Amino acid sequence: MPERVFPGTAAAARRHTRLGLLLVMALAAGCGDLNSFRFVHKNRGAPATWHAEPASVRLEPDTGHGLVLPVTVNGETDFRFRLDNLAPVIVMSKDAERPLVGARPAGRVRLASNTGPDWTGRAAENIELTLGDLVLSEHAVLLADQSLDGVDGLLGHDLLRRAVIEVDAPREILRLHRPRSYRPPRNAAAVPMVIADRLMYVDLSVESAQGQRAYLRLELALGETGGLILAPGVLRALGGSSGSMVMNLGGLRIDGLEAESEGRSGSLADGRLGLGALEGRKFAVDVPGAFLWIYAPDRPATTPVE
């Protein structure tokens, strides 16, 4: 008996297969649903325009909130954003005092976090962000349910995958380079990064004041103002938190670091390396090239001997 074929059955099967594949990809990407998946992938094709290179932005003086810089959003100035690589996307506070003029709502989203509670909130599209001479157009941002600790927004992985971020702490300047044209100084220390699930890891060694040494893989956390944030077991192996520690990172010796205990870390890490460990230094985070570059200190100007 010949097989009966019902009109539209094959097309429906293909449509269901596509939806199933999208759902699997959404879950694998750390998105709680299809709308969240679309939100994350929308920005991958969003335009980025450099009107000068590198684009330079003045950092706020150190106020205990990390690397904070002014960002213009849809033509409105003076929004304060913090650089935080642990944020999966560009995030703004849902309780911002000023409305986002011209923004288009795009539903609820949930994004998985490897370092704490999931990110939840409302998506907003048709956003233009201006960071000095860099303009991110047709962007989507997350209006987060979470508190952002004293700032209007977070510049997360969305920005780091598109630009090499150079931090010149002594001059209080952040520079954003186009990845293909960035060239580190010849004397910069090259620290390879392992990048997995939008997180960045570096390998280093730490020695305690008592002489115990450990070789660690730490998660880079630019939004943390602390320095060495170690898992409790690692800290115990190093003799506890008493006394300062010495870190060797990419052949660079950094003395006088205080370690603190923190249970939250990525599954691949022994803890986190915060901004405090690089305090006062120039460095660059190159996610496309998978390197952390730590610059040698500037040589002081010398006066010719007469």
Could you characterize the architecture of this molecule?
The protein has helices at about 10-30, 35-40, 155-160, 230-235, and strands spanning about 50, 55-60, 70-75, 75-85, 90-95, 105-110, 120-130, 135-145, 155, 165-170, 175, 190-195, 200-205, 215-220, 230, 245-250, 250-255, 260, 270-275, 280-285, 290-295. The chain has about 300 residues and is mainly beta. The protein has two domains: about 40-180, Cathepsin D, subunit A, domain 1; about 185-295, Cathepsin D, subunit A, domain 1, CATH 2.40.70. The strands form two sheets. Strands 2, 10, 11, 12, 13, 14, 15, 16, 17, 18, 19, 20 and 21 form a 13-stranded mixed beta sheet that branches. The protein has a six-stranded mixed beta barrel with strand order 3-4-9-5-8-7. α1 (about 10-30) crosses α2 (about 35-40).
Query: Could you give a short account of the major beta sheet?
Result: 13 strands, mixed
Order of secondary-structure elements: HHEEEEEEEEEHEEEEEEHEEEEEE
Number of helices: 4
Number of domains: 2
Q: Whole-number radius of gyration?
A: 22 Å
State the secondary-structure class: mainly beta
The residue-averaged pLDDT reads 81
**Helical amount among residues, as a percent range?**
10-25%
* Percent of residues in β-strands: 35-45%
At CATH level 2, the architecture of the largest domain is Beta Barrel
CATH T-level fold name of the largest domain = Cathepsin D, subunit A, domain 1
Just give the CATH class of the largest domain: Mainly Beta
Kindly report the name of the CATH homologous superfamily of the largest domain. Answer: Acid Proteases
Q: pLDDT under 50 segments (min length 5)?
A: 1-7, 12-32, 300-306
Distance between the termini: 108 Å
Overall, the morphology is globular
How many DSSP-defined strands? 21
